[in-house]
Amino acid sequence: MSNQFLDLINKRRTIYAVGKNVEQSPEYLTDLIKHAIKQSPSSFNSQSSRAVILFNAEHEKFWDLVKEKLKSYAKDEESAAKTSAKMDSFAAGVGTVLFFEDMDVIKGLQEQFPSYAENFPIWAEHSTAIAQFATWTALHTDGLGASLQHYNPIVDEQVHAEWNIPASWKLRAQLVFGSVEGEAKEKAYIDDATRFKVFK
């Protein structure tokens, strides 16, 4: 099946081996990321997604914070070394997008539309997921590799302090990106009959 949009999202794969051999400038990539997030739909057009875009030394600082925090979780030296190496592999990239949801926006919607109150946090998760997917696909379409990580909430306090993040912003995911330095693993798909039901 040939479809321009499907062709683009087919390029989006998890790339763990990333580097700093990127031709695009931070300014260009910032515009790309901003555009992807701004064009991502949200419930009630709430636009609750927020992002902190880190490049170069600031990006490396984030992964150093994660690495330091994870030391307290290590069971032994071997696991600590493996975790440290993994964080270093993320730091080897050129940047990281920290995705947040603004809880003040969500609370405001809950107050404004009490009948839907319990759904707004769920819909916010949908919004951030779409923004993450859109950003990830945009980066891949531009030739960059990326992987989505989730080291929240263990580093939330440090992130808010280091980059002066508003208290209402809740960290949801981290997208590390850079030049493609290794191939994506082969992706297997479950049988369509298990996943889909079609009625005509």
Question: Which features characterize this protein?
Answer:
Frm2/Hbn1, globular, Nitroreductase-like, NADH Oxidase, 200 residues, cytoplasm, oxidoreductase activity, 46% helix, five-stranded antiparallel sheet
Which secondary-structure class do the elements indicate? Answer: alpha+beta
Percent in strands: 15-25%
Question: From the 3D coordinates, which CATH architecture would you assign?
Answer: 3-Layer(aba) Sandwich
Largest sheet: 5 strands, antiparallel
| Number of helical segments with 4 or more residues | 8
Give the N-terminus to C-terminus distance in angstroms: 21 Å
Number of domain units: 1
- Proportion of residues in helical segments: 40-55%
Oligomer: single chain
What global shape is seen? Answer: globular
Uncertain ranges: none
CATH homologous superfamily designation: NADH Oxidase
Q: Overall mean pLDDT score?
A: 95
CATH fold annotation: NADH Oxidase
CA radius of gyration is 18 Å
The count of strands amounts to: 5
Order of helices and strands: HEHEHHEHHEHEH
CATH class group: Alpha Beta
How would you describe what is shown here?
InterPro entries: Frm2/Hbn1, Nitroreductase, Nitroreductase-like. One of its GO terms (molecular function) is oxidoreductase activity. Keywords: Cytoplasm, Oxidoreductase. Strands 1, 2, 3, 4 and 5 form a five-stranded antiparallel sheet that branches. Helices cover 46% and strands 18% of the residues. The chain has helices at 4-10, 26-38, 56-70, 77-91, 103-112, 120-141, 156-162, 192-195; strands at residues 18-19, 49-55, 95-102, 144-149, 169-180. Helix 2 (26-38) runs antiparallel to helix 6 (120-141). It has one domain: NADH Oxidase. The longest helix has 22 residues, at 120-141. It contains eight helices and five strands; from the N terminus they run H-E-H-E-H-H-E-H-H-E-H-E-H. It is of the alpha+beta class.
